[in-house]
Every structure is written in C-alpha cells, then in structure tokens.
TrEMBL record:
One of its GO terms (cellular component) is plasma membrane. InterPro entries: CEMIP/CEMIP2 (IPR052252), CEMIP_beta-hel_dom (IPR055401), CEMIP_X (IPR055400), G8_domain (IPR019316), ILEI/PANDER_dom (IPR039477), Pectin_lyas_fold (IPR012334), Pectin_lyase_fold/virulence (IPR011050), TSP1_rpt (IPR000884). Residues 81-201 form the G8 domain. One of its GO terms (molecular function) is hydrolase activity, acting on glycosyl bonds. This is G8 domain-containing protein. It comes from Elysia chlorotica. It is found in: Cell membrane. Pfam families: CEMIP_beta-hel, CEMIP_X, G8, ILEI, TSP_1. Keywords: Cell membrane, Glycoprotein, Glycosidase, Hydrolase, Membrane. Belongs to the CEMIP family. It comes from the Eukaryota.
Amino acid sequence: MRESPARSPRLMLLRNAVSLTATASTSTRRSDGGGGGRLSLTSLLLVVVVVASTVLVTPASAQTQCPDYIDDSCEDWSNAGTWPNNQVPGDGDEVEISKCILLDASTANLGGVIIRPAGSLIFEPGTGTKLKLRTKYIRVEGLLRIGSEQCRYEGKATIELTGNQGEHSDPEFGQKYIGVASGGQLELHGERKMPWVKLDQTLDTPDTLEAPYFDSKKSPIGEYWRDGFIAVVINPDNGVVRASAHFNVGSTSKYWFERDEERLVSFMEWVPAGHVVMIASQKRALSPDFNMTNVFDAVEKAIYCKVGRSRLRNLQPGEVWVAIAVKEQPWRTRERVGRDVDTGGYRHASLDLMMPWLNVAFYVSASNHYTYGWFQKSRMLAGPYDDLAPVLGTTGDVQSWRHGDPVLITSTDFDWHQAEMAVLERCDVPQRNITCTNTQLRLKGVLNYQHYGEVSQGVDMRAEIAVMSRNIVVTSSDVLPTCVGENSQEMECDYADVDYAFGGQIKILNGFGSAHIEGVSLEKMGQLHVDNDAYPIYFDMANDTTGKAYVKDNVIHESYRRCLVLRATHSLLIENNVAYDIVGHCFLLLEGGEKNNIFRGNLVAGTKVLESADATFEKREVSAFFITNPLTTVVNNVAAGGDAKGFTYAFPPQPLGESRNLGLMEEGEAKRTAFTAFDNNVAHSNYYSGVDLVKSMEDYGISLRWNTGYNFKADPKNVSSPDVQCVMRLNTLYKNSFENIIARGGWFVFDRFSMSDSSRSILMYIAGGSIQNSYLTNSIILGESDNIGKPQEYWNGTHMIYYNRSIPIRWDITYPIQGLVLVDGPAYIQNTFFNNFPPNPEYTSGAIGFIRGNKWFSSTLTAVTGAVFGFDDGPDTGNRVYDGHEGIPGFYNRTGDVQAMFRDPDGSVTGYPNSQVVKPFPFTTTDDCYYRDNWMMSVCPHRYGKVNVYPKLYSDRAITKPFMTRDDIPEAPFDGDWSSSADFPVILGTDYSYIVHFTEFIPYEIWLTGRGFEKDLPVRVGVCIPTDATISLYTYVPNWKPTTESWNQVNSVAELDAATIPESYYWDQDKGIIFFKLMNEDERSADEMDQCPLGKCPRVRLRVESGDRNNADCTSRAYPAYTRSAPSGLAVSALTETALPATASEPGESRGAHASYPFEDLEFSDGMGYLSWSEWTECTASCDGGVQSRERMCDDTQGCVGASAETRSCNTHACPRIVGNYTEWSEWTTCSASCDG
C-alpha cells in the first residue's frame, strides 16, 4: 500500500481570489454551538455560504504525485475562519459551498450540503485519516471528491445520509440523497481490492471435523429447547471439557426458576481461573416474572470479575445474547446482543475467540425467530485452531484482503440462503507455522453449510467469495422503524425481510459533469414507496456517459430497493461490483432505450422478491440482472442466487415512459437485434430460472408478456433484411431450481454451455411470430453432479423421508429431473454431452425429454445429433430419453404431450440413424417401430410431418374440434384439447393416409397446412364435408390457384396418389369426403432447418359454401371403403431394441464452459478495449467507386489504442457508359439583365 503522510502537501494548481459572504435570517447563531443550529425567533435554518471565483481542475497526467487533486486555495472545514460567521457548521445547519473546502474533520449532523458550481468539497487524504460526513442530503453542482483515479483514497471516509421521510425533499432528487445535478462532479475513488474470487477447494462445515474438543450439536445440551441459557467450560491448555449445563432461568415457574438460578450462580462461581466459558441464550432467556439480579451478578463476575458491565442486563424480549470469556482475564471477554439482521424477525449473534499460541479456537452463536417462538438454535464449538481456521485456496490474488475483513461465501446449493458471511483470520501465524500464498486465505467463525469448490465434469460449481469492506462508505441512518407507506406496504417489508426501508440514494441527472464511483461500500441504501424513484445508484436520463462515468469495484449491501438503475443512460461501464441482500432487481435497465452499457465481472447474491402492485415485474421476475435492451454487453458476471431469477431479458416493443420519444429504438427494433454479448456468465442458486429469455415487457414496470417475438435481423430496422444469429457462449448454469435456462427463440445459438443440477436444465421454445430456430451446440448437461448440497428431509404426508442430496423442488421430492427439455421447435441440439441421470425411487429422470403438460405441438424436425452419453442406458443406470404419461408424478396426457417427438439423424441417441423418437401410441407408431421400456417412448424408422387443421372462424373452432383417423387403423383416432388450430403427426410418404373429421359440425372455412414435409414424400389427407356440399378451393403454395376451376380434379384416390400436380384433389360426393395430396416441390438443402424448404409449406383453403354441415364425423361413411392394410416391404428395416452403452466418460475440452476465471489475471483493468466492429454500412455508390464505413465502441475509460472508425472502397467497377446523340436544344432562358449586357 502506498505510504502517505496524515496530511499531504497541497499542489498549487489554481489560486482563487476568495470572497466570503454569509446569509442568515433574523437572528444570529447560538455562540455556544448548541441548539442544533436552529434560529431562536423564526426557527429558520442558518445557511452558510462560501463563494469562490474558480472551480478546481483535476490533472490527468499518468505520472502523478499524490494527492493530485488538492489546491492551495482549499480551506479546512475545521477552521472557523473558513466560514463567514467564524463558526464551523453545527447540527442541523445547511451548508452552501462555493469555493474549495477540504474536509479535514468529521462533521456535525448537518441539515444539508449544497456544492455550488464554483465549489468543491474534498475529503482530506492520508493513510490514517478517518472522516465522516453526516447530512440529510448533498446537492452536487460543483465537485464532491474522495480520492482520484490515479491517487486512490487511503484513509477511511464515510458519508452518512440521515433523516426520516418528509424532513427534506427536492423536486429533482427526492429525499435523503447525494444528487449530481447538471455540471456536477462526483468523484469517489476508494482503495483497490480484488472484488471476488472463487474457492479452489470445497469448504466443509465443522461437522466434518473428526475430533473437535466440544460440539454442542453432539452434546446433550444441544438438545435443550427450553428457555434460559446453555454454558460450557473448557480448559484451553488441553481442550478438555470441564462442564456443560443448561439453566432454565427464563421459566415462569417459580420452582424451575429458583432451582436453576441457584445452579447457575454456583456454576459461575465454580469456573476455574484461566478456563474458557461460553454462554448462549435460549429462546426466552430472562424470566419476566422474577428478579434476575442474582443471575446478572453471577454471569458478570465470571466474565468481567465485577458486576454492572454486561449488556445482558438490557436484553429485550426476543433478542439473543452470547459471550466468550476467560475466567479472571476480563480483557479477553466478548459479548454480543443479536437484534434483527438481514431477514425480518430473525435474530443472530455470534462470537469467536482465537488462541493460536495454544492451538485452540472457540465459537458460540445463538439465533431465533421471534415471529415463530419455537425457532431457537444455539451452537458452541471448540477445537484445534488449525482445523477451525484452515488455509483455503482461491482462484485469484487476494493480497488486497486484510485480517478482519468481512467476506461473503455464496451458496452452491439450490437455496441461496446458504450464502454466509464470515471474517478473515490472520494468514501469517508464526506460532503455528501458518503462512498463505497470494491466492490463499483463512476464515474464522463457523459455517453452517458446505460450499462446493470443484469443477465437476466441465461444470464450474466453485463458490464465489467476495470481500465486503471498502474504505469509502456511503450509508444511511435514522431510518424509520417500519416500512414507509400503507399497512399493505408494511407487510411487504416483512415479506421482503426488510425492517427499515428508508435509506439513502445517489442520483445522477442529465448534464452531469462526471460520476466515477469505485471502491465504495453502499450500505442500507434505497427507498421503498416514495414519490421519487430512489435507488443506491440511479442514472436518470443521463444520456451518453462515454468518458464521464463508471461504477466499478463497489459493494452494495442490504439495499432496500435495487442496486443500480439506468434510465435513458448509455455507454456506462458497470464492472467488478459485489451486491448482496437486495430487495427487488439488482441491475436494471428501466425503460428499454438504454444502449451500449457494459456489465462485466459483477457478482450478485440474495435478490429478494418485492410484494407490490407491479408484482409480475418484481415478484416472480425479480432478477440480479434485468436487461431491457439487446445492445448490452453482459460478460463474466455471476447471479449467485435469489428468490426468482438470475438474468432476465425482456424488451418492450419500443422504449417506455419518457424514453419513448427520444428516438432510441424503433417499434420492434429490439426484438430484431441480436444481443451484443452474453458470454462467460454464471447463474446458480436461483429459485426459478438461471437465465430467462421468454418475456417481453409490455407496460412500464407492470406487466411482462410471455412471448418474445425474437426475430434477429442483420438490419434490425428492416424486417426484410437477412436473418442473423444471436450467439451466447461459455455460460455456466447450475442449481437453479426450476430451470437453468428457458428460451423462446429467435435464432439463438447456445454454444459451449455447462449446465447441471436443475429440475430442467434447458427449455427451448420457438418465439411467437418468428420462423427462426434455436440451437444448443458443444455443451454439457448433467442431471446430478458430485455437488450433493445439503441432504434433503421431506415429509411425504405420513413420515419423514431422508434423501442423500438436495433436490431442486424442496417441497416435492417426486418432481422429475430433465436435462434437455423440448417444447415446440424446431430446435437443434448438436455435439452435447449428457451424464448423471440415474434411476431413483422417488422421482424420474432423463437426459432428453419434453415439457410436461404441453399445450404446444412438437416439431417433427427437432433433431439431436452428435449426442454423447456418459452412462449406460437402462432401467438401472439411467435414461437417455424419458417422457412419462398421466399417472406418473409430474406427467400428463395433454395434446402436446401425446405427440412429443424428435429426430435422430445420426443415430447418436437411439443407435439407429434417421430414426424418430415418438410417443408409443398406435396413431404415431407402426409394427416397424420398437418400444423402449425405460424411455416410455418408441423408436421408429419413419420420417414424420405435421398436418395443421385450422377452422378460420372463431365461432366454428370454439365449438367443433377436428380429429384424425389413419386409414390402416381407423379404430385408433387422434384427437386433442385444441384451443385454436390442431396439429396431427403424420408419417410422410404414400404408405399411410389420413382423414380429418369434426366433433360437432363441419366448419365453413378450413385451412390445411403441411409442416415438415419433404420433396417426394407426399401425404394424402381427406376431409369430411357434406354430401350435398358446394365448395371452393384456394392455395398459394406450392403454386397460386385462386379458384376451384384452376385445380386439377381427378376421379379416384388411386389417380390422386399417382398425380404429380400438387393442386390435385378427388371428391367422393357419395361419401362426403374430399381428398388432397399435400406435397412439397422444393428439395431441402443440407443446412435447411425451417419447417418447410425455402419456408414454403403446402397449404389448402377449403370453404363449404353450402350443404348440411351437421354430419361432421364421417368415420362410418369412410370405412371400410377407405381402409387400407399396413404396408410391407419398407425400404428401412424394422427396428429392434438394442443396447446403448456409454459413449464417453468425460465431455472433453471442446464441450462446455469448464473453469471460468474472470479474475484469474485481473490487473484492475479499466476496460476490455474495443468491442466488436459494427457491420459495414451500405456503399455510397453503386459503381465508379464508393465508400463503406464501420465503427467500434471503446469500453475502456482510459481510452483504446487504434482507430474507432474505418472506411474501405467498394463498387469500384466502372459505371456503364451510354453512347448516344444530343437531344434538341431547349428554349433560351430569359436574359439576366435588362440593359448593359
């Protein structure tokens, strides 16, 4: 660390001619300094005004003598002569600054600070400096500075925002704020610390210690649930437990109280000198009915050697108390009272005593939940110092972390509440011969949960560990005892585990001069239910921030509302921040117009739901990162658990609110724009989803629609421009309860993802209104990993079930485990490794499956190729594929369920190339298929398509429903709970044929569409119509045939089967059936992935112009006349069941993300340099040489090396020359002058 004197010499940069004026009302300030600065006659505030002629300038030289920001003209805050009335501002004063002031002493509790454009308030630098500024607000029109980029602040600085709601309000900033107005400069530069790293080994709980000296969990006193105290006495010289006991002095029974009061007094008197005594409260510690003086005196004599010193005397009902002492060594005594902590109603206190010279450590804690009086947990532990504070390896350089720093260790299980706070122990202990490398650390205190520290088969599930202290602190005090607002909102605070919800805020407005916030801890910030939006950091309509702002290397802890919010703010770098215990979204782009912002290397844990009117927006959807604009860079971030989701992308049709009319995004542009970057991110321990890509934002902060409409285009403003991919790479997702990622494409390409331990690892939908398909490539999916988490206890209604690992859905142990979940599609899965889907008596599992309770229709083109499995397929080893049916927990027989299917072009799943996995129903299978019992699916050698039947009129389709028969098995029709159109799976080719019937009546207008059809594989489909019908036909694909007369009518189904004209039909008027031959004339290319080649699906429109439409089920008319035998002699042989052994034991380096090291070689870079080049613009000329240009954005605050824009020549060929004759002369123009020529 750089050495600095307590007061560094000031650089003489500017000399200001200073004039001082004072503004006061009708009375002078009290000369004795008391009275809070209030005027005695009018109760008006004294305003201190300091005026200067010039604003301070900060040098930007890289070779800087520190500090580089103090001018000789700066005057000391503590000097009475600095102020116009020769008095340092006191309690309640509002201070107005218009010259350079050096804050060299902590302030009184001020009423407010206004820094005018010519003013500066600079915290004095120096390693040993400790300064606190307490005020209700700070309005920054000039400069507020703590350190600089080149000269980080090295002392300790605190800004404490005080006051309750309504004490001061500003129309621009609201209440309790640091507000950066137009021209204002906010420069906060704390010391540099590695923000977070990953564990490089598993961190176990003390329960794994082989021989602790004492553990209350293994002692009879750990079983006591009664009121009072537990205590244990240990000889620190040898670790021998001398005594342990429980004392029920919280009892309301006179007998029990007097008995245990006497026992406790005797016990405390008996404790031998030099022995360690640990004491913890239990439930109701103190009896409300009897005098506790003897108890207090006895405890205090034992731990302090005298009475009257203990905080135990002031213990309130519901609070917890712990103490550790060495008898007759009162300087070692420690005690703590646990009041409310992060979670509402939950109280906790813990202490430790480290004695490395004796190789012994002690720990005691007590917790309770006063809302639920039965909840009480105390813990006492003693053991070898080396074992209780082991040396731990990490993935990064933690030399900047110090003994005593608090650290956060994230959960690596499904429950994010397993995140724990601990404190760093000394790393160099000569007495024990303990030293640490620059990547090692030691923790003191007892952890309650295991924190995994391994990369399991290519999935990096190592816990993150973050240092939570910074030497600059912005915090809040004097907050309300309950939430602000109506009773319902107070209940919300209880639900969100927030006891105090009126914190401070930093708000930056349009026109600001600078806002560089780094190395700062923001604690107890944000406000619930106030008139102005108030968040820890809020850039409000700040526009382009390039070169003016960044937010990095900060800690945001215990936020009452969000972390950082951007509204109409662009090009901001948000990097290496740590956030924990947050109400609502953490990082939020508010209105959807925020472009080119960069989120890199941020860690968020503990986002909590907000029960409010905008429940869909911030209750189920609460996210660590809520992104509303695709032009956002999101790389190297971690969403380490919360009540809902990790990363959510939800775009409005166009920007909302005040951003709507700023020209930021056109209507629909966002959903046609591929994401700038979403790479190397991690999401784990979120209750719902790790990544959510299925929503769009419809209303401002209110409603999210379950449809994205993603349709990525080369020119997002041009719907007709070519399709482009949206590629997301190297992301790691695990232990997200309901799904690791859910996506509704768009041409998404999920490349090299690593996913593990979720009820569903990835769900792949197709976006409504989009014909683009999604891909999963080169990835890893594990059902269950070596990261077993906390073993599950589950009450099944009759008895407790103990399971050997944690499960995703803690309240339903029968919930199925699925890896890849297919929905509608088509979707394409390529070169992906699957492992660890073992059989289980409680729940089913399968590497590949389908969404359960499906109302959508599976595409016949969805395909899995290059699949690799790490296990043998079989009922005792695991399922490559699994899809249950109604009667199996979690499965159903909805219309989408019964037609689930996918293709296996290369046989990597089934062992049979060009096979199809289908549901085992007669309508979809033949004798050439085989049923795989452990999959509950059939494998068939056929090629499948879909026939979509759509009654055009809502009045028709709301009542009458189509169903279909296959002509070789008419006794097994296919029907469903259709809500709109109906999709029927059909076997392509002429070997099978089908007839469509209706349940109630024949609709007036019917559209038939063939999806997934191939050239030379037509399908004959009949439709029931009235025997006395008048009809009209129309189609435009494959060819345009607008009238019935333009169609080719044939005389039999045999002629129809032989016809080569797609627009052919046969009408059997006696039976009341019209037959069509659906065929595709275009060849599907090798890379064609659409439902139909070239996007052309054969379509027929049939109108029943007249006739009796009531006889809609023509089964009895059609059969046996059109019954046909099952074909024989297929070109593809019938399939039989085959063994499917494991194909690889490991995924290999080319699949998955593997280890992620976002800070492995971090040197606190200000940016990653230039981002990718934009596309080349259109050429400026069509011939004779034009110019194209492109540009790239620099995300480094120190600038980037190289050009930000470049051009190239284009269309250099000569324009054609047209040779010809002149035309006739034009008429002469009017003369330019009336005279003189």
